[in-house]
Amino acid sequence: MKTILIKDILVSKPDGRAITIYGWVRTKRETKNLVFVQVNDGSCFASIQATLDRDKGISAETEAELKRVTTGASVMIEGSLVPSPASGQAVEVEVRSLTVLGEAPADTYPLQKKNHSFEFLREIAHLRARTNTFAAVARMRSQMAYAVHVFFQERGFAYVHTPIITASDCEGAGEMFQVTTLDLERVARDGAQAIARGEPGVDFSKDFFGKPANLTVSGQLEAETYATALSRVYTFGPTFRAENSNTTRHLAEFWMIEPEVAFNRLSENMDLAEEFVKHLLTWALERCAEDMKFFDERIQPGLIETLKAVASADFARITYTEAVAELEKNKDAFEFKPFWGCDMQSEHERYLTEKVYKRPVIVTDYPKEIKAFYMKMNPDGKTVRAMDVLVPGLGELIGGSEREEDLEVLTARITELGLDPADYWWYLDLRRFGTVPHAGFGLGFERLLLYVTGMGNIRDVIPFPRAPKLADF
């Protein structure tokens, strides 16, 4: 069953040649003599119109099939590609035969021709990709993933697959999902008894991995091992945070892009991040124009102009101290009052990009207390060589840093934060043997998709969202 994608048919010449199309019915409209069926196969935003003219004769079989055609039904249509008299499309299919491959009864199919709320569509995530909005989001997700790989592959980066299960916490005391084969009911019972006897509560030597293990919150630490061998690497895979945040900006399972470059300092890291953002936005604007037009018209008016402005801007670069000074000039404008040492909120980040600098901003040199253990300490002993890329309309898009390459300093920092250096023995080995300056950053893929689509809820830019009390499909 060879198929021709509708996106390719729509740019073909209406030369009358025989053609077969497959797809799902969006609408069926009938007059006395004519029947119009809009068919979409998901390959593009537009549908193709298939027209049946009873005055030219329709077989009894096709007439019988037409009675089964409803919104959502899948069909095979054979006919000729001809010029379309309808506005907005150059071609249509003059039908010779129509076969219903799968019915979608109108009394039970939940996606009828009407507006459905995004909340309702999340309840039927297995069907929501058939709507205009979520089909566009899915195509954009695919294109952005491709754009990520193109960017790094063209610049000599090696793609590294980092583990999903890990015994190391990249963020240090982060909220993680534990992975175990132990009988949890038995652990609870026997563990309580062991604690009462003054013994350790859980014997992890009997667990599958022989030690506590978790789903990863980041592939960065493992990426560093390969950066110190291959120079330029990147990861792109799922990560997990057991943060009990039921908001429009948090997911329990999401995808991260994390490049890591040996022999780089913070300045080169900022250059790479700025180039990466511009590449991704340009790709969306140039390669996904039809879907971007839909997002601009129906989801977030002005989206295209915002992305164009960011893609062509020179990113401002300021220190955290300078950023806080700007925020404190107008501190009454914020719900969360800014002060040196605070972890900047989205309202602070957007104020800097939209009010003060009116362009993307890279903020550097954050207080060490609000950043992870692996970030390189500045000579002042108070700040680290971290950087966040902030963009208008969203806030933080990228977070990164120069990594601490000094063994003694890194060991002291791990200990200072109450972590056990023994748990990071292999990570410390990278500093014992051939250590080099290196830097990298992380970009949450769903955060990027929120930005380029204008969607308001992060659960709507991933096919099957995972969040507190939500693990369906």
Assembly category: single chain
Low-confidence stretches: none
Q: Which percent band covers the strand fraction?
A: 15-25%
Helix content: 25-40%
What spatial form do the alpha-carbon principal axes imply? globular
Q: Give the name of the CATH architecture of the largest domain.
A: 2-Layer Sandwich
N-to-C series of helices and strands:
HEEEHEEHHEEEHEHEEHHHEHHEEEHHEH
Largest sheet: 8 strands, mixed
Write a concise synopsis of the structure shown.
The protein is α+β, with helices and mostly antiparallel strands and 473 residues long.
Structure description:
By secondary structure, this protein is α+β, with helices and mostly antiparallel strands. The protein has two domains: 6-102, OB fold (Dihydrolipoamide Acetyltransferase, E2P); 132-176 and 217-460, BirA Bifunctional Protein, domain 2, CATH 3.30.930. The protein is built from 14 helices and 16 strands. The strands form three sheets. The protein has an eight-stranded mixed sheet. Strands 1-2-3-5-4 form a five-stranded mixed β-barrel. The mean pLDDT is 94.
Question: What descriptive keywords fit this protein?
Answer:
single chain, 473 residues, alpha+beta, OB fold (Dihydrolipoamide Acetyltransferase, E2P), BirA Bifunctional Protein, domain 2, 2 domains, 8-stranded mixed beta sheet, 5-stranded mixed beta barrel, 14 helices, 16 strands, globular
SSE diagram, text form:
Blueprint: H1 6-9, E1 18-30, E2 34-40, E3 48-53, H2 60-66, E4 74-83, E5 91-102, H3 118-123, H4 132-153, E6 158-159, E7 165-166, E8 178-179, H5 184-196, E9 213-215, H6 220-230, E10 232-240, E11 253-262, H7 266-287, H8 289-299, H9 303-311, E12 316-319, H10 320-328, H11 346-356, E13 361-367, E14 383-391, E15 395-402, H12 407-416, H13 425-432, E16 438-444, H14 445-453
Parallel strand pairs: 3-5, 6-10, 12-13
Antiparallel strand pairs: 1-2, 1-4, 2-3, 4-5, 7-9, 8-9, 10-11, 11-16, 13-14, 14-15, 15-16
